[in-house]
Amino acid sequence: MVVNESLQSQIQFLIEIDKLKTIERKTRIIHGDRLENDAEHSWHLAMMALILQSHSNKEVDILKVIKMLLVHDLVEIDAGDTFAYDTVGHADKYDREIKAAHRLFGILPEEQAEELLNLWLEFEAKETNEAQFASSMDRLQPLIHNHQNEGDTWQKYNITSEQVLNRNREIENGSETLWTYAQQIIQNSVDKGILTKSKS
Fold first, then answer.
1. What gap in Å lies between CA 120 and CA 114, rounded to an integer?
2. Average pLDDT over residues 34-62
3. Beta strands, E only, the chain
4. Are 42 and 73 in contact (CB under 8 A)?
5. Where's the HD domain (predicted)?
C-alpha cells in the first residue's frame, strides 16, 4: 500500500493523540465513580460550546471555538494534566505545554501544524472573543461536575469557596450569564456544605 507523505503524517498524528484517552483528570465523571480523562473533557467542552453559544458576551465563530476546545488539552499527552489549584505545577506549566505543542502539532503537515499551534496559542492568550468563550467552557465544566458530585474533588483536596471563585472568575470574560450561574452553583455548594469557605 502506497500512502502519500501528507496522509501518512496525518494518520500518525491521529494515532498519537489517542493517548489523550489515557490522561486522567482530577474530576470524577458525573454518572460513575471513575475519573474523567482528557479526551472526554475535550468532547464535553465542545458540546457545551455548541449548546451554550447563545450565552456568549460577544458573537463568536463557533467552529473556531470548537476547534480550540478539541485542541487545547492535546499538549497534556506530554505535559500531563496540571490540577487547577496546583500553584507549584502552574509555575512551569506553559513551558512544558509549549514544548509539547511543538512536538505534537509538528507531526502534521506544515499548514495544519501551524493552524493547530495558532489555535492553541490563541486559547492560551485568552484575548479574542472565541478564546474567552472557550475558556469559559473550560472553567464551567469541572464546576458543574463538582457540584453534581457533592464536591468530590473540592473535598478531596481541601479546596475553599474563595479558591473556586478566584479560579473561575474569568468565566465572566466569555459569558456574564454563565458567570452568574457559576456563582449560584458555588453558593449552593457552600449552602449544602459540600464546599467550605476556609481550609479546615
1. 10
2. 98
3. 24-28, 35-37
4. yes
5. 17-179
